[in-house]
TrEMBL record:
Organism annotation: Dysosmobacter acutus
Protein name stated in the entry: AAA family ATPase
Alphabetical list of PROSITE patterns matching this protein: SF4_HELICASE
InterPro entries noted in UniProt: DNA_helicase_DnaB-like_C, Twinkle-like
Pfam families xrefs: AAA_25
UniProt cross-references to PANTHER family, sorted A to Z: T7-LIKE MITOCHONDRIAL DNA HELICASE, TWINKLE MTDNA HELICASE
Sequence ranges assigned to domain SF4 helicase in this UniProt record: 146-414
Superkingdom of the source species: Bacteria
Length: 448
């Protein structure tokens, strides 16, 4: 052992260099106190005051002389704690721990030696068990459910679902597209689909005030057959509204299932705030489908512009970890780098290029120019840019219904779909008839 190695170790550990000889025995005894170091004698150390297992990284060359670490601590709680810390410090050394009974009721190595002799000390390693290495697992111990990957929800667009197998547990989907091409609209529809499939959802919608968000979502949930056309007498422009009775039924349907992140709180766009609210929504309400719309409205931890893309990429990494940790599906909207020119590709997403690397799926959505729409028979196009699970690459034609803001596959099913609120999945309402005696289901058209 060199003087340099000993000097580095001497900043973390207390030991007697004269009693260190890894060639004699490759086991380094990590003791609780200088008395125990002295009692053991050969190859024994303890931590200097204020030092701990994390500091051992500073003296790796010293540690590398030994084959394994032996937790020579009599007191049970302290022994378990030290063993855990040594293991998680990822020092690349096996950690051996003796069972409590090996200490024969003694509070220290020194006491064990004085009461039961040197042999009692020497036999300690014989009963020890090796802790599994931190970060390295035996594949046979990995528990997987029968049936493989599980989709948290499907889109309802049969061609898309057939290609990607639905939106999987623990996965992150990135959605891109130029401004106003329909990303938010399609994603809000996907959340409704998830609710209809029995899931609870969370939405961070960085650009839409809550009333507008709700109005648009209501129209989608209602569907064409339940909308009232309101034409502005001045401009002639027609907008669509859901009457108060139906609004109430829809509210009952998604109550407790649809959680919207409130943009009015002070830290609204801070990534930490959004992520912790997502945690909360999962743990408290069981939300499984998350929408983060969009990356550009988020305020990342690093402030400077030069760090922006790195911070955005790190945020995408955190979203991916979140999805895995909670077995959820996260949808993230990320704008493309360039806004003009040819069809969008995976490399165009975000600014750093590696957003798509971190995602499990990437999709681009675009509106078709009128002529192309007429020729193809559909008005929008959804392209699968990446699909980790099946490697699917596909372009799916969609039609857009302007009144109810719904996208539908070419089969038209989603445009006509009746969500749960129409199928009795809501609380029965008791309604007082208005004095004029008219049917309240037909007459009430106030806007939200
Ligand atoms: N294919 C389409 N045809 C006609 N109108 C559409 C289509 N897609 C979306 N719209 C309408 O365009 C407007 C903008 O859509 P949306 O907010 O979903 O776009 P976006 O891609 O999320 O935009 P941004 O990037 O600005 O957030 C909405 O009023 C929506 O109803």
């Amino acid at each position: 052992m060199t003087d340099r190695e000993l000097a580095a170790a001497g900043e973390v550990l207390l030991f007697d260099p004269a009693f260190l000889n890894p060639r004699y025995d490759g086991t380094l005894w990590v003791c609780a106190s200088p008395e125990d170091v002295y009692a053991q004698g050969i190859n024994a150390v303890c931590f200097l005051p204020g030092r701990g297992p994390e500091d051992l990284k500073r003296c790796r060359p010293f540690l590398n002389q030994f084959d394994c670490l032996f937790v020579a601590v009599a007191e049970e709680k302290a022994r378990k704690a030290l063993a855990g810390e040594l293991r998680s410090a990822a020092l690349g050394k096996p950690v051996w721990v003796p069972p409590g009974q090996s200490f024969r009721g003694c509070a220290s190595l020194a006491e064990l030696k004085s009461r039961h002799g040197t042999e009692a000390l020497e036999s300690l390693p014989m009963d020890a068990v090796e802790l599994p290495a931190y970060g390295l697992i035996d594949l046979s111990d990995v528990d997987v459910e029968e049936g493989g990957r599980r989709a948290v929800a499907v889109s309802g667009i049969s061609t898309l679902d057939g290609a990607i197998g639905g939106f999987g547990e623990g996965e992150l989907s990135v959605w891109t597209g130029r401004r106003g091409e329909g990303k938010s609209t399609l994603l809000s529809q996907l959340l409704l689909e998830a609710i209809d499939q029995g899931e609870r959802v969370f939405a961070y919608s960085g650009e839409l005030p809550k009333k507008l968000f709700k109005r648009w979502t209501l129209v989608q949930a209602a569907g064409s057959a339940n909308l009232t056309a309101l034409t502005d007498p001045v401009t002639g422009r027609t907008d669509y509204a859901v009457d108060a009775m139906k609004r109430r039924r829809i509210d009952e349907w998604w109550r407790g299932r649809y959680f919207l992140y409130d943009l009015e709180i002070a830290s609204a766009h801070d990534e930490g705030s959004v992520l912790s609210m997502m945690d909360y929504a999962n743990l408290r309400y069981g939300c499984k489908v998350f929408l983060v719309d969009n990356a550009m409205t988020m305020r990342f931890r690093q402030g400077s512009d030069s760090d922006y893309y790195r911070a955005q990429s790190a945020f995408v990494g955190r979203l991916s970890e979140f999805a895995k940790r909670h077995s959820c599906h996260v949808h993230l909207v990320a704008h493309p780098r360039k806004s003009e020119g040819k069809a969008l590709a995976a490399d165009d997403v975000g600014g750093s290029g590696d957003i798509v690397n971190r995602a499990d799926n990437a999709f681009a959505i675009e509106r078709l120019p009128e002529a192309a729409a007429e020729q193809s028979g559909y008005t929008a196009r959804l392209s699968i840019l990446k699909n980790r699970q099946f490697g699917a690459r596909k372009t799916v034609g969609l039609t857009f219904l302007e009144d109810c803001r719904r996208f539908s596959g070419l089969d038209g099913v989603l445009g006509q779909k009746h969500y749960g609120w129409e199928n009795g999945e809501c609380v029965q309402q008791i309604v007082e008839l208005p004095p004029d005696g008219n049917d309240p289901w037909e007459t009430s058209h106030e806007s939200t």
